[in-house]
Amino acid sequence: MRKRITSDSVRAYASVSKDTAPIHLEQEAAAQAGYKRTIAHGMYMMGLAQALYLTEHPSQWITTYHMKFFKPLLVDTDVVFHFEASDEEVRVTVTADPGEVIAQGAFSVKEKF
Fold first, then answer.
1. I need a labelling partner for 111 at 20 to 30 A (CA). Which of 13, 25, 54, 56 fits?
2. Which band of pLDDT confidence, cut at 50, 70 and 90, is reported for residue 59?
3. How does residue 105 score in pLDDT terms, banded at 50, 70 and 90?
4. What distance in Å separates the CA atoms of residue 88 and residue 107, rounded to the nearest whole number?
5. Range of the domain at 17
């Protein structure tokens, strides 16, 4: 599933989560840290992965999750969430163009009812 990570979505997440670290919101802070653009929150990426999966599987519930981040995700980047499900676990890989793995993780799922 492809998704564009925009500065508007990162700002909305920052507002809700109260994580207003400048590296996520201010170009100057991102540049001082060595990035071309601001970067997305890691937990935003994990939450988005869960939301995208549950949209396609509304009868399931996530019980546990973990994710390992390999690289920061620059804002205004297209990413692909690839899900691979087994009986009780869903593995997710997040890649950015041109195929760079940004993060990998998994979550345990069960049926709601």
1. 13
2. very high
3. very high
4. 8
5. 2-111
